[in-house]
Amino acid sequence: MSNPVALITGPTSGIGYVTAVELSKKGFDLILVARNKQKVEALQKDIGDCVTTDFISCDLGSIESVKAAVTEIRNRYTKIDVLINNAGLLVQNKEKSVDGIELTFATNHMGPFVLTTGLVSLLKPGARVVNVASEAHFFAFFSIDKLVDPDFYQDLIVYGRSKLANILFSNELSDRLFTYGVTSNALHPGTVASNFAGNGNGLTAAFMKLFRPFFKTVKQGAATTIYLASSPEVQGITGKYFVGKKSGRSSSAAKNKALGKQLWKLSEELVEQKTGKAQTA
Which DSSP category does 246 fall into? Predict the structure, then answer.
């Protein structure tokens, strides 16, 4: 394969869709990691045959499903140039994943953790990992022992915890992969006028619906992801949090390296509990 290869989770709607389309225009072959085959087929039709697009079925809320996706990808590919952890979920009421983990944390952190660490061998020098986080991480009241089964549930706070986890993971991954020439950065896409978090009847959904006319367009929201995935300006830059194509301010918790290591250890333990096998990068 002569084209660079980009893997994108959650590519069938919102900023993931725009990211996939725009990267295809830049000549990236695409690995589209998603649950809904029909939506992926619609995206593939929109992209056309200018590049290769490959569907990998995966439910990020299930460790076994992500493990199976990793195996499938490793069987099909020898390299990934850009890995974009884009998919995100906000759950109005408390739910648990098939693994007994709070569903927002399971989908937004554990899924990307298992996927990314499982594919590290395909990330060659110069490869980039791009993690879509959020300014919602500033709302996070973070306690490692409350992530798997929080005793108090408010959707935006729990979502904020998962987004803080995204940044902590991104930073720890950056430290671990630095000597291999692989970069890892997180970003805030802005508050985007998509259907994300707008379904339901809770306060967060009501807010999203009310203020949607004032939010960024989906194309504007995808701009920083595309920039980190493809721009030569950020080649070699790692361990940063970007807002609007610039290095931005993150919370003090997001800069806490000890907390990042605790989160990594917890993530490994959860995978081992489920599969009986260690997971690390």
Answer: E
